[in-house]
Amino acid sequence: MKLYQSLCDVAKFRSAFDFGGREVAHWFPGHMAKGLKKMRASLKSVDCIIEIHDYIPLSGRNPVFQETLDIKPHLLVLNKMDLADLSHKQRILKELDRSGVKNVLFTNCLKQRDNNVTKLVPTVLEMMTKSCRFHREENRNYCLMVIGVPNVGKSSLINSLRRTHLKKGRASPVGGEPGITRAVLTRIQVCERPMMHLLDTPGVLPPNIESVETGMKLALCGTILDHLVGEDIIADYLLYSLNRLGNFSYVEKYDLQEPSDDIQHVLKHIAVKLRKTQRVTAITGVGNVNIIIPNYAAAAYIFIRAFRKGELGQVILD
Questions:
Q1: Does 291 reside within a domain?
Q2: Judging by beta carbons within 10 Å of its beta carbon (0-12, 13-18, 19+), is residue 140 exposed, middle or buried?
Q3: Rounded to whole angstroms, how far apart are CA atoms 201 and 185?
Q4: Are strands 142-147 and 196-199 parallel, antiparallel or unpaired?
Q5: 82 annotated ligand binder
Q6: Which one of 13, 155, 229, 249 is CB 3.0 to 4.6 Å from 313, fit for a cystine?
Q7: What is the rounded CA–CA span in Å between residue 142 and residue 100?
Q8: What angle do CA 228, 154, 150 make, to 5 degrees?
């Protein structure tokens, strides 16, 4: 009976997320034009573009890149696939094919050895042999440019290729927040036979994100700094997304009795379970009283981080 009641309650959950009438241009301002300008200036020495993206493979990509990608061989690498629900893989490939993206590779660059990463060099070599190199025809050294929106794993891919082909450690800084790579770097060698270098580039957001929903997906995946959007609303959108996808893994993880559509209720349980509390002063008619309350901000941060680390199950947000 309790299970039946829970299922009935889930059917009443939100069917749409209320963004509060926010305008996308004000909430998710596009930027990083300087980085894009430098990338375009470096194209004359580049043989192939490798675009990295993650588990929002359709709506989250930067359409401005298309102006650049049209004149070079282009490989789309969908990274962090350990976090993705790959039951949707064929649907994603068909959608990408309809938009003109023919070469796609699924990777998990944080694995010590990912079989799909080993396919990258042969794949780009085949693509480059089918493409005219113009003024670089006599040059047998290859240069690839790695591009993408922030925090999708560009530097992780470079380091993974170095581990695979050179047996060397990382040469490009990696972090869990967007903005680690802030400039177009010098060339980084990733393979010896053939001689191949990659250009690591800063993550570049589109100048105009197409919708508030797309912007929120990017924020949820860590592409936009949390504090610019607000961890409370990111956590609420995460709860809405998990419920919409029928993913109720958070119930067991945080000892809830049943799925919930109330983010305050969920965050309270997280704070209590993990003992994330804070002391505040309450003003009463008989003086000030110190009380202990759940730390909702800390709980929201934990909830979001758990999702990004794959602790709440595999999803595709598109």
A1: yes
A2: exposed
A3: 6
A4: parallel
A5: yes
A6: 249
A7: 24
A8: 15
Domain identity same for 193 and 65 = yes
Q: Give the tens place of pLDDT for each residue, 122-169.
A: 999 888 887 765 555 566 788 898 888 888 888 888 888 888 888 876
Instruction: State both tokens at 192.
Output: 């010896």
Q: Is 252 helix (H, G, I), strand (E, B) or coil?
A: helix
Determine whether the annotation assigns residue 153 to a binding site. yes
- pLDDT tens per residue, range 93-119: 999 999 888 899 998 877 767 788 889
Count structural domains, the chain.
2
On the CB side of 318, CA atoms within 13 Å amount to 19
- Is the overall model pTM greater than 0.90, yes or no? no
Consult the annotation and say whether 87 binds a ligand: no
Q: Answer yes or no: do 237 and 131 share one domain.
A: no
Annotated ligand binding at 151? The verdict is yes
Distance between CA atoms of 182 and 38, rounded to whole angstroms?
Answer: 11
Is 128 annotated for ligand binding? no
Establish if 247 belongs to a structural domain. Answer: yes
Q: What is the extent of the structural domain holding 183?
A: 30-200
What gap in Å lies between CA 98 and CA 92, rounded to an integer?
10
Say whether 80 counts as a known binding-site residue.
yes
The pLDDT value recorded for residue 4 is 43
| In the chain, % of residues over pLDDT 90 | 27
Q: Is 155 annotated as a binding residue?
A: yes
Is residue 154 a known part of a binding site?
yes
Locus of tokens 């990777």 = 107
